[in-house]
Amino acid sequence: MAASTGSVGVPLKKEATEDVVPQFTAISSQASDTVHDEELEVKRAMRAKRNRKIAAASHEHKMQYIKELERRVDVVCQEKAKMQVSQFRLVRQRLELEAKILDKMKELKREEIHKLSCQMQSA
């Protein structure tokens, strides 16, 4: 094999040329690994950013859902209070009507007794 010349025109020995090639290959391999590692790191960072964005959206959705549930609870509590007031009024009205009925029955009973006693006195 012919001897190669270096950058300054100095002939290189066969052994020197062979030593340079493996070193270049090793450097190239290291550079390739570094680029690969950087690509993986970029992908990890992008995935982490995407996951944070999704988590933030999920958290926001959850907060909106909770607010909606709290609003519904407030509405149901208000409706319950209104129904309780209405129920109280209806019970009071029923009691008032029952009291009027009892009073009317007592009045009718007195009138009947009075009528019967008048009939007995005239007989």
Layout of helices and strands, plus pairs?
Elements: E1 4-5, E2 11-12, H1 14-122
Antiparallel strand pairs: 1-2
* Strand residue percentage: under 5%
Which consecutive residue ranges, at least 5 long each, have pLDDT under 50? none
Quick one: biggest sheet?
2 strands, antiparallel
Topology pattern, helix = H, strand = E: EEH
What's the total helix number?
Answer: 1
Number of distinct beta strands:
2
Helical fraction: over 70%
Radius of gyration: 51 Å
Quote the distance from N terminus to C terminus: 163 Å
Structural class: mainly alpha
Strand order of the largest sheet: 1-2
Mean pLDDT: 85
Shape: rod-shaped
Short description:
This protein has one helix and two strands; from the N terminus they run E-E-H.
Descriptive notes:
The protein is 89% helix and 3% strand. The relative contact order is 0.03. It has a domain of 84 residues. With 123 residues, it is mostly helical. It is rod-shaped, with a radius of gyration of 51 Å.
Q: Descriptors for this entry?
A:
single chain; 123 residues; mainly alpha; two-stranded antiparallel sheet; 89% helix
